[in-house]
Design a protein that fits this description.
With 455 residues, this protein is of the alpha/beta class. Helices cover 39% and strands 15% of the residues. Helix 3 packs antiparallel against helix 10, helix 5 packs across helix 9 and helix 11 packs parallel to helix 14. The protein starts with 8 loop residues before the first helix and ends with a helix. The protein binds pyridoxal-5'-phosphate.
Length: 455
C-alpha cells in the first residue's frame, strides 16, 4: 500500500504527546533557559522535533542519555561532529595529556602535532600543504579568499541548496523561475549574494560551463556529493567534468569533504580519485573538539605565498585569513589522536558495513510496502527522502521536503530510543555502532511505515 502525502494528525499528536510526557526534565530545562537566545545555546538546536530539544546528560560511543534517564542510540552523532562516537578514548587521553599534563590549551605557538596532522591529511587526501581553522565554515571562508587572491577573479560558483557552513557567498539558490536568489531566510546579508555568486543545479555540467564562461569565477565550491539537502550523488562523469571545466576556465576546484569524509579514510577524494585544488574538512577530524582544515596543491600554496611576500595580500596579520585560537594545541592533540587511532581504515570498514546493512534494510521495507521514498548511502551515512526515484539535483530534493513526515519519523524514533539528525533523516555510523543498533532501527522503521501505510 502506498503512503499518500501527509501524516494523519492523530499519529503526529500521539507522538508529540508522548515526547512531551516522557521528557519532563528536558522540557523543564528548556523552559528555565531564560538567558539563552531561543532558549538554546545555539539557535539551530530548535530544529529538533517536539517543541524542545533533549537536554542530554551523558554521551559515550554510540549512546547518549538525557536528563530524564532515557538512553538513545545516536545516529545523529552531532551531525558528523561526533562521527568518531562520543568521547573516543584515544582522543580523551591525548587531550588530557595536552591540557592537564603538558599544559597549553591555546598558545599561538606551533608544536610537533601540527606537522604530524598536516602529513596525515596529505597521506589521506593527497594535497601536500595544510592550514587550520576552528570550523569548516571558517576553512571555507578562507579558502574562498585565497581562491580570489590566486585567480584574481571575484565570484564563486555553488550548487543550488548546497551547504558549507554560514558562509555568506553560499546562500544562493535557483528560484522556481530558474533565476538565482538569496536563499529564503538568509539573515540580513551584507550584500545581495547573487552579486558574489553564480549558482546552478547539481549534476548540470552544461550550466556549470555556461556560468564559468563569464570568466569571473575564482572557485567552484562543492561537496563531492550534496549531503545537506538529503544525499544527492554525482552522476557518472559529473565530478570529472567539474575538474575539466575548472581547469579550462582557470577556476579553482574547492572540494568540501566535511560530511563526505564518511566515504572512507580519505573521503570521496581518495575513494574516487578526485583532484581538487583546495580541500576543506572539519567537524569529525578532531573527535568533536573544534577544528577545521584546508589543504592546497603546491601550485596554489606557492601563489598564495608569492602574493603575500610581494605585499599584495597579508596572510600573516590582519588580512582576513586567520583566528587567534585557530591551530591551537588542544585541537591538534585531538586531531592527531583521532586520525591516528580512531577514524582508521578498519573503523571505516566497520562503519560502512553497518551503513550497507542499514540501507539494504530500509530499501527492503520501502519496496515491500511500495512506499514512494528513496534511500541514498554515502559510505558510513545513509538518508531517506520522501520521493522516488532519488533526486538528482538540490532543487528536486528540496521539493521533496515534508515537514510533517520529518517530524513524525523523528519523534517516532526518539520516543523509542533512536536519535536521527534533526535537519535530515540522516543516519551515520560510528566505530562504536553495532549491528544490533541497526536492527533496532530496522524494526522501528518497519513499524513506522506500517502505521503510515495502514492509516
Ligand atoms: C559540507 C559542510 N561544510 C561545512 C560545514 C560547516 O561546518 P561547521 O558548522 O562545523 O563550521 C558543514 C556543516 O554542516 C557542512 O555540512
Amino acid at each position: 500500500m502506498i503512503i499518500d502525502t501527509g501524516v494523519p494528525g492523530r499519529l503526529l499528536d500521539r507522538e508529540r504527546q508522548r515526547y512531551r510526557a516522557e521528557h519532563p526534565g528536558s522540557l523543564a530545562a528548556y523552559r528555565a533557559a531564560d538567558h539563552l537566545l531561543g532558549r538554546v545555546p545555539m539557535t539551530w538546536m530548535n530544529m529538533w522535533s517536539g517543541g524542545f530539544p533533549l537536554s542530554f546528560s551523558t554521551a559515550r560511543g554510540s549512546r547518549i542519555t538525557d536528563v530524564d534517564g532515557n538512553e538513545y542510540i545516536d545516529f545523529a552523532l552531532g551531525d558528523t561532529g561526533a562521527m568518531t562516537g562520543h568521547s573516543p578514548a584515544a582522543t580523551i587521553a591525548a587531550v588530557q595529556q595536552r591540557i592537564a599534563v603538558d599544559g597549553g590549551i591555546t598558545t599561538m605557538l606551533p608544536n610537533a602535532d601540527a606537522e604530524w596532522v598536516g602529513a596525515e591529511l596529505s597521506r589521506r587526501f593527497g594535497l601536500p600543504i595544510w592550514s587550520f581553522s576552528l570550523s569548516a565554515t571558517d576553512a571555507n571562508r578562507w579558502a574562498i579568499r585565497l581562491a580570489r587572491l590566486v585567480t584574481g577573479k571575484p565570484k564563486i560558483l555553488v550548487f543550488s541548496y548546497c551547504y558549507h557552513g554560514s558562509v555568506d557567498e553560499t546562500f544562493v539558490v535557483l528560484g522556481p523561475d530558474g533565476q538565482p536568489r538569496s536563499r529564503p531566510g538568509n539573515v540580513a546579508p551584507a550584500v545581495d549574494p547573487t552579486t558574489t555568486t553564480r549558482v546552478v543545479e547539481w549534476n548540470d555540467l552544461d550550466a556549470v560551463e555556461r556560468e564559468l564562461a563569464h570568466g569571473d569565477v575564482a572557485a567552484i565550491l562543492t561537496e563531492p556529493a550534496l549531503t545537506n539537502i538529503g544525499i544527492v550523488l554525482p552522476e557518472p562523469g559529473f565530478l570529472a567534468g567539474l575538474r575539466e571545466l575548472a581547469t579550462r576556465h582557470a577556476t579553482l576546484l574547492v572540494i568540501d569533504e566535511t560530511h563526505t569524509f564518511s566515504a572512507g579514510p580519505g573521503g570521496m577524494t581518495a575513494r574516487d580519485g578526485l583532484q581538487p585544488d583546495v580541500l576543506v574538512i572539519g567537524k569529525s577530524i578532531g573527535g568533536g573538539v573544534p577544528c577545521g582544515a584546508y589543504g592546497l596543491t603546491n601550485e596554489v600554496a606557492e601563489q598564495v605565498l608569492r602574493r603575500s611576500a610581494s605585499g599584495e595580500a597579508d596572510i600573516v596579520d590582519v588580512g582576513g585569513v586567520g583566528g587567534t585560537l585557530a591551530g591551537n594545541p588542544l585541537s591538534f592533540a585531538a586531531m592527531r589522536a583521532t586520525l591516528g587511532e580512531v577514524l582508521t581504515a578498519g573503523a571505516f570498514e566497520h562503519m560502512i558495513n553497518l551503513a550497507d546493512r542499514y540501507t539494504t534494510d530500509v530499501q527492503a521495507i520501502l519496496d515491500a510496502n511500495e512506499v514512494p521514498w528513496s534511500i541514498t548511502q554515502l559510505g558510513a551515512r545513509a538518508e531517506y527522502r520522501f520521493v522516488r526515484p532519488a533526486p538528482r539535483t538540490g532543487g528536486e530534493s528540496a521539493a521533496a521536503a515534508d515537514d510533517q513526515l520529518d517530524e513524525f519519523m523523528h519523534l517516532f524514533m526518539i520516543n523509542r530510543g533512536i536519535v536521527m539528525t534533526p535537519f535530515h533523516n540522516m543516519a551515520l555510523m560510528c566505530p562504536a555502532s553495532t549491528i544490533a543498533d541497526v536492527s533496532t532501527h530496522t524494526e522501528l522503521f518497519r513499524a513506522a511505515v506500517a502505521e503510515l501505510t495502514a492509516s
